[in-house]
Fold this sequence. Notes:
Order of helices and strands: HEEHEHEEEEEH
Amino acid sequence: METASVAERIKKIAEQTAIDHGLELVHTEVAGPENNLILRVFIDKPGGVTHDDCSDVSTQIGTVLDVEDFIHATYTLEVSSPGIERGLYKLADYERFTGSAAKIKTRVAIGNQRNFRGIISGVANETIVFDDRTTGRVEIPFASIAKANLEVDVENEFRHAQERAATDRDLIKKNR
């Protein structure tokens, strides 16, 4: 069976499994050589997924794969969270994460640029409105995006953590 048709069947099975468990299917991918595939399934939910979520989804997908038996090769099934710098795969992802920092790489240059870093400003039709750090506002056709991920500002996260810790210390002192 061709890898493309395997990938499509995996995606359908993963979509139904995610629905069954009240989760969002973020992405699926099939990697590796045809005789030793790696099936990756990324799931999410508000507040993040747990180990039990991943285990339950893995068990259900594994059972369906065993019953349907359409992969005629060795494979490894991996089910995980998309991580804090999750990939952006659908227009809905860009709508959901409007206002968030991201990195976008395009298939073709837009204004002599293929790599963008900045803030997602919104979605208009099939176009991502993006405030790039170096070139300012740019409109990126969704179809031209090769890869995109949220980007965590580590320095900002540390600063917020320090501010929360200071607030906690102040509250503890006041309540003594």
